[in-house]
Amino acid sequence: MRLNALSRVELAVGLLASAGSVAFVSALIELLRPYMPVLSLGVLYVFAVLAVAVIWGIELAVIVSVASMLAFNWFFLPPTHTFQLRDGANWAVLAVYLVTAVVVSALAAQARRRAEVAERREREASVLAAMAGDLLAGTDLADELDRVGVLTAGVLGVPHARIELGVEAPEDGETAYALAIGGRRVGTVLVGLEHALDAEAAERFLPALASLLAVELDRADLQAEALEAEALRRSDTIKTALLYAVSHDLRSPLTAIVAAASGLSNPEVRLDRGDRDVLVETIRVEADRLNRLVGNLLDLSRLRSGVAAPHPELWPVDGLVSRALDQLGADDARVNVELDHDAPPVRVDPVQIERVLVNLLENALKFSPAGSTVSVTTETSGAELLVHVFDRGPGVDPGLREAVFEPFRRGDQAAVRGAGLGLAIARGFAEVNGARVWAEGDHTGGHFVLALPVADRSPVLA
């Protein structure tokens, strides 16, 4: 440690300690002089020099070396209390002591510097390792910059450091240091003007920090690109599935409508009243089927784009079920409803929840054997009102109870037609209303549950 690197307080303490060490050794030699040759005791000053060299550096150690030899000459070499020497050989002894003290102080100071460098490098390496662990663990880089600044300040020997990505102009009272690697500027370190960096530490640490930040920035960019690619892949999958659904589920009813209309409009075809009614009914049924398919596609698009905002109202569950049954037409006769009339009301969007119930009921009827019934029951469970829909169909395989709610997921039965959108739309509308829908295991057939949030029953003061 050089004298100009010491603060005034550190320099004052070093000077006092140096004078005290010389005085202590001199007193020790005075105590030992009756028992040992005085010339042999002069080597004790080396310990004073060594202690000062290790703690305060070679400059003060050299001063202590010279002061020690002068004190040894003044107090112990005849004639005492003068700097003259009666025996010429004592000059050689003093010279040897002085050279030994200077060499020892130099070696001690060098060992101390090496230990300090090794300690700083170990600290820098541990800080970089900690930063790498935090940054590469998947945390957001912007959230970690404050902690990186604290660690960087400790390495650079300043009380505070601020890290900013890219080029950042320093504020008043700050100095900016570039974080660059390979000609690429990745960030800026900003410290107070009144604080000087440890130049050696900055030369080693800042390029390593810049490399670490560059790797994290590249990783974040690659992750964003991967997410974007995955989103595009999913979008392409949905588009492909949509085209598949359109090509199959639109073509079939359109073919039936065109064929029926052609039969009705062909003057060469003689049709009785019954045949004409059958063709007209075919057109009506297939048109309704097309209308439902287009409606499902539009609903799915609204849910995907996040514009299906609910308009909640207070409704009893029997009112919601009644609205859903009205949409089933003649099939409502196959639905057996057993509701708890004491069930609490729910606060939901009635149009959207009606659509959820209609899709669940249509799904149950579709997979039930002809002539069988579908049951609807309710129960209250905590803050939710559960609507159970039972059918006598094949049920849902345990491994597919989540998959059946994916868009374009069709039933396993070949005879069942549909685009596979009903359950996906049911779950989507349920979730935007704070409700849940899922498939249960039931050995008697299919079992779906709609959990609606119960309305708040806070007492109202009269």
Topology overview:
Blueprint: H1 8-32, H2 38-41, H3 45-56, H4 58-76, H5 89-135, H6 141-156, E1 161-165, E2 174-181, E3 184-192, H7 199-265, H8 273-305, E4 313-315, H9 317-326, E5 335-338, E6 346-348, H10 350-367, E7 374-381, E8 384-390, H11 422-432, E9 436-439, E10 447-453
Parallel strand pairs: 5-7
Antiparallel strand pairs: 1-3, 2-3, 4-6, 7-8, 8-10, 9-10
Q: How would you sum up this structure, described in words?
A:
- The structure is a single chain.
- By secondary structure, this protein is of the alpha+beta class.
- 57% of the residues lie in helices and 13% in strands.
- It has helices at residues 8-32, 38-41, 45-56, 58-76, 89-135, 141-156, 199-265, 273-305, 317-326, 350-367, 422-432, and strands spanning 161-165, 174-181, 184-192, 313-315, 335-338, 346-348, 374-381, 384-390, 436-439, 447-453.
- Strands 5-7-8-10-9 form a five-stranded mixed sheet. The chain has a three-stranded antiparallel sheet with strand order 1-3-2.
- Helix 3 runs antiparallel to helix 4 (58-76), helix 4 packs antiparallel against helix 5 and helix 10 (350-367) packs antiparallel against helix 11 (422-432).
- The two termini are 83 Å apart.
